[in-house]
Design a protein that fits this description.
With 117 residues, this protein is mainly alpha-helical. The protein is 49% helix and 3% strand. It has 2 domains: 1-59; 64-109, no CATH class. The structure holds zinc ion.
C-alpha cells in the first residue's frame, strides 16, 4: 500500500485524530482531578466549621435560623437586617433599633467598641 492512496491517508488521519482526542481527554481529566481534590481540601474544613458552629450555637461560622430578641430590651431583631459595620456584614448579627445594643447572630451582646472582625 502506498501513502498516496486515499484509503491509507484516511487511516493515518483517523489515527492522528484519535491520538489527539486521547491526549485532550487525558489533560482534561488530570486538571479535573486536581480541581476536585483542591476543592475538597477547601470545602471539607469549611463545611465542618459551619456544621460545628451551627450545632453549638456559637462562633462565627454557624448559621442562625431562629429570630433573636435583643438581650437588653427584648425587642425582636429583624430577620432581614442592614449591617451597621464590617463585622455584621461578614459574620451576621445586628444592632437593636430601640436601644442600640449590638448583638451577634446568636443574640449575644457584642461589647461596645469591640474591633474584633
Ligand atoms: Zn434593644
Amino acid at each position: 500500500m502506498r501513502c498516496s492512496e486515499p484509503g491509507h491517508r484516511a487511516l493515518v488521519r483517523a489515527g492522528l485524530v484519535a491520538e489527539l482526542g486521547t491526549l485532550a481527554t487525558t489533560v482534561v481529566s488530570t486538571v479535573h482531578i486536581v480541581l476536585i481534590v483542591v476543592s475538597a481540601l477547601i470545602a471539607c474544613p469549611a463545611i465542618f466549621l459551619v456544621i460545628r458552629d451551627t450545632r453549638r450555637g456559637t462562633g462565627k461560622w454557624g448559621i442562625s435560623f431562629r429570630g433573636r430578641l435583643c438581650p437588653t430590651c427584648g425587642t425582636p431583631l429583624p430577620l432581614i437586617r442592614r449591617p451597621a459595620n464590617e463585622r455584621q456584614r461578614l459574620w451576621g448579627g445586628g444592632t437593636c433599633k430601640k436601644c442600640g445594643t449590638e448583638v451577634d447572630k446568636w443574640g449575644v451582646v457584642v461589647p461596645a467598641g469591640s474591633e474584633d472582625v
